[in-house]
Automatic annotation (TrEMBL), chain A:
Species per Swiss-Prot/TrEMBL record: Methylobacterium aerolatum
Protein name, per record: Carbon monoxide dehydrogenase
Keywords: Membrane, Transmembrane, Transmembrane helix
Classification of source organism: Bacteria, Pseudomonadati, Pseudomonadota, Alphaproteobacteria, Hyphomicrobiales
Ranges annotated as spanning the membrane: 25-44
From TrEMBL, chain B:
Protein name in the entry: Protoheme IX farnesyltransferase
Gene: ctaB
Subcellular location: Cell membrane
Family the UniProt entry places it in: Belongs to the UbiA prenyltransferase family. Protoheme IX farnesyltransferase subfamily.
Pathways involved: Porphyrin-containing compound metabolism; heme O biosynthesis; heme O from protoheme: step 1/1
Chief site of localization: membrane
UniProt function note: Converts heme B (protoheme IX) to heme O by substitution of the vinyl group on carbon 2 of heme B porphyrin ring with a hydroxyethyl farnesyl side group.
Signal peptide: none
Topology versus the membrane: Multi-pass membrane protein
InterPro entries xref list: Protohaem_IX_farnesylTrfase (IPR006369), UbiA_prenyltransferase (IPR000537), UbiA_prenylTrfase_CS (IPR030470), UbiA_sf (IPR044878)
Length: 55, 311
């Protein structure tokens, strides 16, 4: 019985793989930078008096 | 029986572009200009902003400008492909698919507006959103292909960053940033039309109704002179209002006279190499003029070089 045709992509060339890897690293760095940005923003918005409150 | 197999080459979508290609989509040189003019808008404002908040706000404004540039490249890929200056951009060159650019631009648009809203205030975020929509939708999708006044009206998008900068610092819009807006707005036509005079053939081939193609080169040259005559005194308004000092006054006067002089040279030299030299001379000088004006304001405000001309 004939099976569904499989789509086979040719393997990526080393150059294409390197490009994909660089892109992944860039996305990771961008995500890290966003985390840092929101952290700094939060601290700056809360201000130094945030811990100075009655317990 | 063996299964049927189909071997496909991965499309550009499957392989994806290089990191610099995505960066190029953001028009980095425009981003630098936007950071610079927004920073000047912040520096001339009466108020104070925390350095971290100011830096994050500037970053958000720059990313928002980049996002609108990315959306512009997505929409204009067909035009970019037929113009020598833009044919090597990532989309017409086939390194990034239009869909990727659209997704990237939309994500950065929303993210930049959200971050600016969180960091600064809703007015600044609203102005940034307006700038992005104005540039990507009003200018790119509509005006650019519809009217010879495209870059005149579209210039408003490029002129807004100082206003956003002031909104970040003060939470409002003041006369200072509105004057800076007006200067960039009036500066844009002579700047762009000088280039359009030289590239008129390419714009015609791409079907873009730039002023030299629609009204003719001579009318364009006259309009360039009129705009420069308007720009030269407008450039000195910051001195009259008291936020431009002596250094600014000198640069504004010399630069304004230079703009008028070079515009008249464009009007007089209408053929051959002299025409090209005159137009490119004005184009180059116009960049220097605007950069010098804004640098003078920044230096006066941040380096303590301000010497009042008007009491």
């Amino acid at each position: 019985m004939a099976r569904e045709p499989e789509i086979q992509y040719r393997p990526l060339t080393p150059e294409e793989e390197a490009r994909r890897r660089k892109r992944s690293v860039a996305i990771a760095l961008a995500l890290g930078a966003m985390v840092l940005l929101f952290f700094v923003l939060t601290i700056a918005k809360l201000g130094p008096q945030v811990l100075n409150r009655p317990l | 029986m063996t299964s049927a197999t189909t071997t496909l080459n991965p499309t550009v979508e499957a392989v994806g572009g290089d990191v610099p290609d995505y960066f190029a989509l953001l028009k980095p040189r425009v981003m630098v200009l936007v950071i610079f003019t927004a920073l000047v808008g912040m520096s001339v404002s009466q108020g104070h902003v925390q350095p971290a908040i100011g830096a994050i706000s500037l970053f958000a404004i720059a990313v928002g400008a980049g996002a609108s540039g990315c959306l512009n490249m997505w929409w204009d890929a067909d035009i970019d492909a037929v113009m020598s200056r833009t044919a090597t951009r990532p989309i017409p060159a086939g390194r990034i698919t239009p869909g990727e650019a659209l997704g990237f631009g939309l994500f950065l648009s929303v993210a930049s507006v959200l971050v600016l809203g969180l960091a600064a205030n809703l007015l600044a975020a609203g102005l940034l959103a307006f700038t992005i929509v104005f540039y990507a939708v009003i200018y790119s999708m509509w005006l650019k292909r519809a009217t010879a006044q495209n870059i005149v009206i579209g210039g408003a998008a490029g002129a807004l960053p100082p206003v956003i900068g002031q909104a970040v610092v003060t939470g409002g819009i003041g006369i200072e940033s509105l004057v800076l807006f007006a200067i960039i707005f009036i500066w844009t036509p002579p700047h762009f039309w000088a280039l359009a005079l030289i590239k008129a053939g390419e714009y015609a081939r791409a079907g873009i109704p730039m002023m030299p193609n629609v009204a003719g080169p001579d009318s364009t040259r006259r309009q360039i002179v009129w705009y420069s005559l308007l720009l030269a005194p407008l450039g000195l308004v910051p001195v009259a209002l008291g936020f431009g000092g002596l250094l600014y006054a000198v640069i504004g006067t010399v630069g304004g006279l230079g703009m008028v002089g070079l515009s008249v040279r464009v009007l007089r030299n209408r053929t051959g190499e002299a025409e090209r030299k005159a137009a490119m001379g004005l184009f180059g000088f116009s960049i220097l003029y605007l950069f010098a004006l804004f640098s003078a304001l920044l230096a006066e405000q941040s380096l303590g070089l301000f010497r009042a001309v008007v009491a």
